[in-house]
Design brief:
Blueprint lengths: L1 H36 L2 H26 L2 H52 L7
Helix pairs in contact: 1-3, 2-3
């Protein structure tokens, strides 16, 4: 019966460690996201979004006052270029965030595998 209790205690300790590491991992991911929101890249993307909105409003005003077909074609071309630029910037920012999350996940995996090796009876910890 004592062996069962020992196994139960060890399993419980491992589960508690895993829970703690996962919680720390989520906290780190949240911290990275908050830092990312404060980053220059995030500010640039936000600024570009506002600029795009202002650009659309400006072009709509121009369309109301001039040669509609020509202005629509010009606007469409310019909007397409701006959208492509914005999408590229958003993809780059997404890659940065994904990389940060991958690093946190890898660190959690290393910690989890390291802790489980230390807890095994007969494992060499030197």
């Amino acid at each position: 019966m004592e062996n069962t209790n020992d196994l139960h205690d060890k399993a419980k300790k491992m589960a508690e460690k895993a829970e703690k590491l996962i919680s720390e991992g989520f906290d780190k991911a949240k911290e990275h996201f908050e830092k990312a929101k404060e980053s220059e890249t995030y500010a640039k993307i936000t600024d570009k979004m506002y600029q795009a909105g202002e650009y659309v409003e400006k072009k709509l005003d121009e369309l109301k006052q001039g040669d509609l077909p020509d202005k629509i074609e010009t606007f469409r071309n310019q909007a397409e270029e701006k959208a492509e630029t914005f999408i590229d910037q958003a993809k780059a920012y997404g890659a940065i965030l994904a990389s940060d999350v991958d690093e946190v996940i890898d660190t959690m995996k290393e910690k989890l595998s390291g802790d489980s090796k230390q807890d095994k009876p007969g494992s060499a910890n030197k």
